[in-house]
Amino acid sequence: MNKNVIKSVTMISIFFCLLWLVGLGWAVSEYYAGKPDKIQEKTNVEMKAEKKDGMHIVAIGDSLTRGTGDETGKGYVGFLLDEIKEKSKQDVRLTNLGISGQESGQLKQQIQQTEVKRQLKSADMILVTMGGNDLFRGGQGLLEFEAADIANIEKKFMENMNFIFQQIRASNSEANVFFIGLYNPFSELERGKEMSAVVRHWNYQSAELSAAFPKIVFVPTFDLFELKVNDYLYTDKFHPNTKGYRLIAERVASLLTW
Amino acid sequence: MNKLIQNEMMKLIAKKRLVVIAIIIGILVALFTYAQFKENERQKEKLGTDDWRTIIQQTIIDQQNRISSPRISDEWKQQLQIALQQNQYYLDHDINPSEPGAPTFMRIFLENSIELFIPLMVMVIASDIVSSEHSQGSIKLLLTRPVKRWKVLLSKYLTLILAISLIVAIAGLLSYSISGLVFGYKGWGAPVLTGFSVTDAGLNTASVKLIDQWQFLLMDFGLVWLVAIVVGTLSFMLSVLIRSTAAGMGVMLAALISGAILSNMVSSWESAKYFFMVNLKLTNYMNGNPPPIEGMTLSFSMMVLLVWWCAGLFVSFYVFTKKDVY
User: Fold this and answer.
1) Higher-confidence position of B195 and A51
2) Into which CATH architecture does domain A55-255 fall?
3) Least enclosed by CB within 10 Å: which of B224, B231, B256, B314?
4) What SS3 class is residue A204?
5) pLDDT of A49 higher than 70
6) Minimal CA separation from B323 to chain A, in Å
7) Residue contact B209–A100, C-beta within 8 A
8) Which residue, among A4, A12, A15, A17, would best test binding to B if mutated, counting the most B CBs under 10 Å from its CB?
9) B296 touches chain A (CB under 8 A)
C-alpha cells in the first residue's frame, strides 16, 4: 500500500472534518444568534404575466370547481377542458384554484393574493363557482332556515361577489367570465319547495349582478337538476356526481364562442 | 499515535469499503436525479408551464383542499398548515424555494438522507471496525503490542471520524456532480429562507433570514456530519460490545428504522424525544419543518445527541479496556 495514498486520504479527510465542524458551528450560531432580515413582501411582482401561445383557463371557487363527488376527479372544469381541447387546435392550459368549502368571504381574500391576480391577468377564460357554501353551509342552512337570515346572507354574498368581479375586471378586462349559478340539492326533501324559491331568488340576484359587468356571463344550472335531482347527485346528496358535472360542463361549453 | 492511525487508515483503504459506499451513493443519486427529472416533466405537462410561481400556487391550493377535508387528523392538518404558510411566505416574497440546479438537489438530498441513508453508510464502516478484528483473530496481534489498549481504540475511533467526514463529503460531491448533468451546476447564490419557527399558533416568520444557498448548504453539511458522528459512535460501541458484526449492525439498523417510524407517530408520546433516533432530522430546524414532537428545538436535539454520544464513547472505552480477549 502506497504511503502517499494513505497520507493524502488522511489529509483530505481532516480537511473535510474541519470544514463540517465550521458548518456545524455556523448552523448553531445562525440558528440562535442570527439577526432576522427585513424581507420586503413583493406585491407588484412583474405583473406582466407571461403571455404564451394557447389558451389559459383559470377556475376559481369551491368544491364544484374542485370536482368533489365526481368519480373521475375531473369535475365540470375537467369535462369542459376535454371538450375545449377537442374543438380547439391550440394548447389549453388550466389553473384550478378552487378550494373545497370556500365561501365568498374567503374567495374575496384569495383573489387579492398577488399570485392569484397574476394568474387571472394571463387568463383567457375565467370560471367561477361560488355561493353553495354561503347558502347551504353543508346542509346546516336547511335546518335553521329563516327568511331574515337568508336575506342577510344573500346581501353579504352579493357584496362579496361584487367586489370579486371588480377585482377580476381590474386584473383582466378581456377574458370571458362564466359565473356558475346554484342548483337546489334539497329540492326533493321536506321544505324543498321553500328552498327552491330561495335558490331561484339567489340566482336571479346573481344574474343581475353579473349583467352589471362586461363579459361576465351567469350560467344557470338550477333547471338542470330540477326534475331528477337524485340522479345527478353524489352519495352525499349535495355535490353533483359525474353525470351532474357533465351537464354543467355541457352547458358552459354551449356558451363558448370561437 | 500517528503510526496507529496510519495503520488503521491503511486497513480502511485496503478494505475498499469507501469505494463501495461511493458506488452505492452514486447509484442512488443517479436514481433520485432521474426521479426528480421525471417529476419535473410530469408537473410541467400537468400545469402546462414550468413557472415556479404557478407550481407553488397549485401546491398551496392542494394543501388548502386537504386541510378543508374533514377526514384528516389534527396533527396532519397542523403540519399541512405550516407547510402551506411557508409556501405562501415564499410566494409572497417572490423567492423560489427550489431554484433548479445541482445545489438545490444537493440540499434536498441531504435533508432527506440525514435520517437514514447517511447513517446507514456510516454503519457500514463503523459496525465492524472493532468486531472484525475479533472475527479475523487479528485483535490479539494488535493488543500484544506495547501500546495501551485505550490508544488502540482511540486510533480506531479517530479513523472512524475521518472516514465519516469523507463519506459526508463523498455524498456531497457525488450528488452535486451527478445531478448537475441534468439540472445544471448553477444556483450556489440562490436565496434560501431560514429561521422559520414552529409554535402552537402555527408558523412564526418573525425571525426569518435570507441567506445564500451555499451558506445554507454548509450548515446542512455540518448538521449531517454531527448526526453521522453520533450514529457512527453508537455503532462503534456496538462493535465493541458485540463480537458479531452482523448482530451489531442489526441492532443499529433496528434503532435507525424505528426512529424513522417513531418520528411519524410519536407526537403524543412525549418522552420519546429522549431517544437519539427521533432527533436525527436536525436539518428540519433549519428549513422550518415541524419537529416530530412539540417543543423540540435544535439545542434540545443536539443535547440529546451529545449525551448519547458521550455515553457511547464512555461505554466503548470502558468495555474495551476491561474485557478479556481470548
Assistant:
1) B195
2) 3-Layer(aba) Sandwich (3.40)
3) B314
4) helix
5) no
6) 30
7) no
8) A17
9) no
B2 touches chain A (CB under 8 A): no
pLDDT at res. A210: 94
B325 within 8 A of B139, measured Cβ to Cβ: yes
- Is the separation of the CB atoms in B221 and B113 below 8 Å? no
Residue B78 reports pLDDT greater than 60? yes
pLDDT at residue A45 is higher than 60:
no
Question: HSE of B264 in the Cβ direction (CA atoms, 13 Å)?
Answer: 5
Closest CA to A136 of A27, A248, A237: A237
pLDDT: which is higher, B59 or B230: B230
Cell readout for B294 is 412539540
Query: How far is it, in rounded angstroms, from Cα A78 to Cα A85?
Result: 10
Q: Does B324 touch chain A (CB under 8 A)?
A: no
Complex-level ipTM: 0.88
Q: What angle do CA B242, B246, B250 make, to 5 degrees?
A: 90
Q: Which three cell numbers stand for residue B232?
A: 457512527
| pLDDT tens track for A217-250 | 999 999 999 888 888 999 888 899 999 999 999 9
| Number of other residues whose CB lies within 10 A of the CB of residue B70 | 7
* Interchain pair A16, B165: CB under 8 A: yes
Kindly determine whether residue A40 and residue B93, on different chains, have CB atoms separated by under 8 Å: yes
Residue type, A139: G
Q: Return d(Cα A204, Cα A219) in angstroms, integer.
A: 11
What's the CA gap between B166 and B118, in Å, rounded? 12
Task: Residue B224: list chain A partners with CB under 8 A.
Answer: 20
Kindly determine whether residue A36 and residue B206, on different chains, have CB atoms separated by under 8 Å: yes
Number of neighbours of residue A87 by Cβ within 10 angstroms: 11
Long-range contacts from B200-208, C-beta under 8 angstroms, 24+ separation: B200/B294, B202/B78, B202/B81, B202/B82, B202/B85, B203/B81, B203/B82, B203/B85, B203/B86, B203/B89, B203/B288, B205/B85, B205/B89, B206/A36, B207/A34, B207/A36, B208/A36, B208/A37, B208/A39, B208/B89
User: Which positions ≥6 away from A93 have C-beta within 8 Å?
Assistant: A52, A54, A55, A56, A57, B47, B48, B49
Nearest-angstrom CA–CA distance, B15 and B120 = 18
Answer yes or no: do A36 and B299 touch at CB < 8 A: no
Sequence ranges of the domains in chain A: 1-39, 55-255
Rg value, chain A, Cα:
26
